[in-house]
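Annotated sample (chain length 307).
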Amino acid sequence: MTKSLRPTAPDPADFTRYLERQRRKIDRVLRRRLARIPEAPSSLLAAMRYSLLVGGKRLRPILALEACRALGGAERHALPASAALEMIHTYSLIHDDLPAMDDDRWRRGLPTAHVKFGEALAILAGDALHTLAFQILSEEPEGRPYAERRGRVLSLVARAAGVRGMVGGQVRDLESEGKRVTAPALARIHRGKTGALLTAAAISGGILAGGAGGEIEALRAYSESLGLAVQIVDDILNEEGSRTGLGKSPGKDRKDGKATYPSLFGLAPSRARAKLAVARAHRAIAPLGARARKLSQLADFVLARDS
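Output written by the structure step:
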């Protein structure tokens, strides 16, 4: 039986500092990516930079990098996909915040893109980040030896970002506003809206590392449970957090009649569900042994975060 990773886990503060170093690394990659497209209109680049580089947890790119490392891959092979995943996530936030969608005026502690630049340029900045991401996924890592891996990752992320994933989840989320939803319907909404891209991030990292079979399935099971925990914690923080801590409008989900875990189950039962999801995530990657220690710590971080 595989030994538990958790009793010997390092100090959480050490892991928080580690995450900050990873965030800075990813931010450097993102800045370099945007610097490579000087032919774009300056107004468009300004809106892209504003939305992409003003902060964020960088959970999806970090997840891709850690999954790649856990399966013995080189970081350089997953960095392009990590940048692309953050671009797709940012595009989705820009569009989610629009008046026609969630109509939020704050994101990451600053005015949302449509407040800062107007709706038209915000939409186009999201479109530009979305398409740039798929260009990166289709071209990198470069070379014929990685062609098959690029193709698998490209297909995986496209499905996660599309009608089976984020877009479909967002539609179900909008259609559920003000309605009573069942637990299975709520889970379906969030598997698409939040979970799909998180799962694609982990599996992409594994694919780019050359993983297959049971290793990829372990990452799939881990990230599906992690995605559920992320959404439940987000829902709880939207109820209990402040705008300073969250960087966005608290209490807005309740005001808009959104389907959330606290609205369906209550706060305490929702916390219990998040803990169970993280426990499942730990069990899923136990067969990977010490290689998956950082993934294990990442799950604990998601559960403990307060913003």
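Annotation: The beta strands are 106-107, 110-111.
Annotation: Residues 1-9 have pLDDT under 50 and may be disordered.
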